[in-house]
Amino acid sequence: MIIIDEKQFLVGNSVGAFTLIKGFADTFAGLPVAADHSGEFWFVKTGSSPYVPLTSWFKYPAGLYTPISGVWEQAPISVDYTETTGLVSNITDWATFYPLVGTIAIGSRITFNGVLYTNKTGSVSSTTPALDATNWESKIIVEKIASSTNKDLTLSTSLNYTAVLENPVYEDLNFDPSASGGPAVSIPDYVTINDVIYREFTSGNNQKCGSGAELPHNYKLSGTLQPHLHIFLKTGENAGTTGVSFTFYWALRESDGTLTYGNLVLSATSAQLTSNPVKFNLYGTAFAGADTLGAQLSVAIARTAGDAGDVIVTTFGVHYPIDTMGSRQLGVK
Questions:
Q1: 131, 186, 278, 307: which one has the fewest Cβ atoms less than 10 Å from its Cβ?
Q2: Pairing verdict, β 57-60 and 48-52
Q3: What number of other Cβ atoms are within 10 A of residue 173's Cβ?
Q4: Are 224 and 101 found together in one domain?
C-alpha cells in the first residue's frame, strides 16, 4: 500500500521505506514478479497492448509501477525535493484506475497520455480524463520556482489556444490628458513642470478632454471596469475648502451592437490634496464591462466642482481584469 498525505506528498509504503525508481523495463511484460518487489517503483519505458485508437491509450502505458496486492499497478504520486516541488504523476491505465478509486479528492492530479489533469468534482467516471470535461480539467500548475536559479517558464499551447489564469489579475488601460482631445474652448491648459509637459484643470471647473481605445484581447470578458485618475495640486496653488471633483464619462460599444454608457464623480478633499503633493489616486465605482471581444471604450474627464487651485491630471483610465495572455483567435476569446 502506498501512503500519500493530504498534500499528496509520498511519505512511505507498506514496508516503511522505498527507493523511488528501483529498476526499468522496456514494456509491462518485462517487469519482474510483483510479489518479489513489494515497496519498489519500476519504470516502464514503452506502452503496450492493447492500443485503442479512439481514445489513444494503452492498457499498460509507460510510467511508474509498484506492486499493490501482489499485482503491478500504477498510482499517481508527488514528491517534495530540495528547493523545488515537482509532480511525479503516472500515466494511469484508466481501465484499472477507474474501478479502484470510485471517488477521489477534489484537486487530485494525474497524467493521461502525457497531459496533466486536475479533478474538479471529487468523482470519476468510466470516461477517460481527455473526454470527461465534467470531472477533469487540464491546466499547468507551477508548484514552486527554485530561489537560487533564474529560469524562463515556457508555455506551449496548441493552435488557437492560449494560457488561462484561474484567478484573474488586473491591468491598467491609461490615457494621457496631454494626448487627449476635445473642443478648443474647453481643453485643459498645457503647463511645464520640471521640464515635463502636463495638462492642468483650473478652478474655473469648465475644462474637459477625452480619448478612447479597444479593450485588450487579454481582458476577461464580462469583467467590471474601475475608473481612476492620478492627480496632484500644482505647486503654489491653494487647496481651497471644497477640494476638487472630476466627472468621468464613459461609453462602451461592442461588436454585437450593444451600447452602454454612463458617468460618475471622483473627488479629492482639500486635506487630501495638501497631504499628497506628489500624487493622489482617485478611484470610482466599477461599471459593467464588455461581453464580446473587440469592444471600444471611449472616456472623457471634466473638472466639474471644487474651489482648489489648478490641478494636474497625469493619467486617467480604467482598471480591468485579465484571464489570458491574449485571445485564441483574432476574433474569438
A1: 278
A2: antiparallel
A3: 16
A4: no
Q: What is the model's pLDDT at position 42? A: 82
Count of the separate structural domains present in the chain: 2
- pTM given for the model: 0.61
Q: Give the range with max mean pLDDT: 55-69, 79-93, 119-133.
A: 119-133
Separation between Cα atoms, residue 249 and residue 247, nearest integer Å: 6
Whether residue 171 sits in one domain with residue 62: no
The 10s digit of each residue's pLDDT in 13-34 is 333 333 356 778 888 889 999 9
- Is the same domain home to 171 and 295? yes
Whether 137 and 173 map to the same domain: the answer is no
Q: 75 is in which domain, residue-wise?
A: 2-154
Mean pLDDT of 29-50: 83
Residues 142 and 178 in one domain: no
Question: What's the mean pLDDT in 266-288?
Answer: 96
Residue where the block lists cell 475648502: 241
What CA–CA distance (Å, rounded) separates 98 from 218?
38
Q: Which residues touch 247 (CB under 8 Å, ≥6 apart)?
A: 263, 264, 265, 266, 301, 302, 304
pLDDT of 80 reads: 36
Own/partner pairs, 44-53, CB within 8 angstroms, 24+ separation: 47/91
Q: Which of 104, 120, 154 is the last residue of a domain?
A: 154
Distance CA 15, CA 37 (A): 11
Tell me: do 61 and 188 sit in the same domain. Answer: no
In a domain, 240, yes or no: yes
Distance, in Å, from the CA atom of 331 to the CA atom of 301, rounded to the nearest integer, reads 30
Answer whether residue 161 is part of any domain: no
Q: What mean pLDDT comes out for the span 294-320?
A: 97
Task: Answer whether 90's CB lies under 8 Å from 2's CB.
Answer: no
Structural domain includes residue 160: no
Q: Are residues 177 and 318 in the same domain?
A: yes
HSE-up of residue 158 (Cα within 13 Å, Cβ side)? 2
